[in-house]
Write a structure and sequence with these properties.
Shape: globular
Number of helices: 10
Order of helices and strands: EEEHEHEHHHHHEHEHH
Radius of gyration: 18 Å
CATH architecture of one domain: 3-Layer(aba) Sandwich
CATH superfamily of one domain: Alpha/Beta hydrolase fold, catalytic domain
Distance between the termini: 40 Å
Structural class: alpha/beta
């Protein structure tokens, strides 16, 4: 497998993990707003974007990320994930706590989540269309999914449309990701300080996952953003950047990494 990535800057690395259907360009609206003096790294998850697997062997995105950090000689990072990528980032921080200084979760999924019947039925309809060879209709259903209702009427609508059009849909045809045990029962083990960014208008299912994370993790600060939905890094990138920059700066404060007591969230 070859992972496609982009990086800039030097120093302690901030790593970005995109969500389902996206690629590293999912961060285009947020990327320029984060500290230019930092080392920033974003990449396409396996079989998304330009990262292609050379075999059908089982894998996990978590261990792919561990391999990426090892290859880049990154021994500690600030980790940011959105949606499915938030689930990857959360699981990575649980599995490899020594590698994560801080964790920012944007509308995160919880790995191993048992989806509601309505969600599962909508998903199955998309998968069936893709496997019948009608990828255009599958993508149209994905574009019109309630998950993206607020993004479709935001300044990020064109960016989302581009993302959907360029999604290859390989995971709808065949997904070689290993089945994983649910993370919900070990959330209390999270060691890294966490910033949880959620949209008030996000789907109930994702808001429930965020509620569970907030209730289960001791060292977490939640910011609920009015008027925004699921893809906060696209809909309200300036607000996200303000909170992320303040949060990461706090890890570098005299109070030391892990301290949230002195974190003063910007005005949303």
């Amino acid at each position: 497998m070859k992972l496609h990535l982009q990086e800039q800057g030097e120093g302690l690395c901030t790593v970005f993990v995109h969500g389902f259907g996206g690629d590293l360009h999912s961060w285009d609206r947020l990327w320029p707003l984060l500290g230019a003096s930092r080392h920033l790294l974003r990449y396409d998850l396996r079989d998304f974007g330009q990262s292609l697997a050379n075999s059908d062997e089982a894998f996990t995105h978590v261990e792919d990320l561990a391999a990426l950090l090892s290859a880049k000689s990154i021994t500690r990072c600030d980790l940011i994930g959105v949606s499915m990528g938030g689930g990857v980032a959360l699981r990575f921080a649980l599995d490899h706590p020594e590698l994560v200084r801080s964790l920012t979760l944007i509308s995160p999924q919880i790995s191993g989540w048992e989806w509601s019947t309505p969600w599962a039925e909508e998903w199955q309809e998309i998968v069936l269309l893709a496997r019948e060879g009608d990828m255009a209709s599958a993508k149209n259903l994905w574009w019109n999914h309630a998950l993206f209702a607020t993004t479709r009427v935001s300044p990020a609508a064109d960016a989302l449309r581009h993302e959907v059009e360029h999604f290859a849909g390989r995971q709808w045809l065949r997904d070689n990701h290993e089945m994983v045990m649910p993370d919900i029962e070990r959330l209390h083990e999270l060691q890294a300080p966490a910033l949880l960014l959620t949209g008030v208008l996000d789907l109930e299912e994702f808001r429930l996952m965020a509620d569970i994370i907030e209730a289960s993790v001791e060292n977490v600060r939640r910011v609920d953003i009015e008027g925004a939905g699921h893809l906060l890094q696209m809909e309200v990138p300036e607000t996200c950047a303000d909170h992320i920059n303040a949060f990461i700066a706090q890890q570098e404060s005299p109070n030391g990494p892990g301290a949230l007591d002195g974190y003063v969230p910007p005005m949303a």
